[in-house]
Amino acid sequence: MDTATGRTVTVNLPHMPYLNSNQRLHWATKARKTKAIRDAAAWATKALNQTPMAAVEITAVIHPKTNRRFDPHNFQPTVKAAIDGIVDAQLIADDDATRLVSVAFRAGEKDPTGTRIELIVKEVTR
After folding, report:
1. Which of 45, 63, 64, 66 could cross-link with 89 by S-S, CB 3.0 to 4.6 Å?
2. In the chain, at which residue ranges do the beta strands (DSSP E only) sit?
3. Structural domains present in the chain
């Protein structure tokens, strides 16, 4: 059983073109966007100046631009790239099953400035 240690870090991704599961992009366009998201997440994580965590649970909170219905889990490609950026920043050593215990998606409050994503990284003990 996993238990939270109480240490939580929030990584805020900047407003940028996000990837979603409904897009059908050319592989080069998708690769470019994936790299941009990964790099942005790495920079945002490094700016927090945190010590590494052994095991974590991540909750992706998707703040939509409008009040329209949407599926938060459709942003999975963006969240995956952002998690890779968190690994690049060395907040966690890897995103395998022993270190990344779970990933959840949740709808956040409307943000009229544009869709934004925050990743709540909670340290857990295994």
Report:
1. 45
2. 3-12, 56-63, 100-107, 116-125
3. 3-125 (3.30.1330.70)
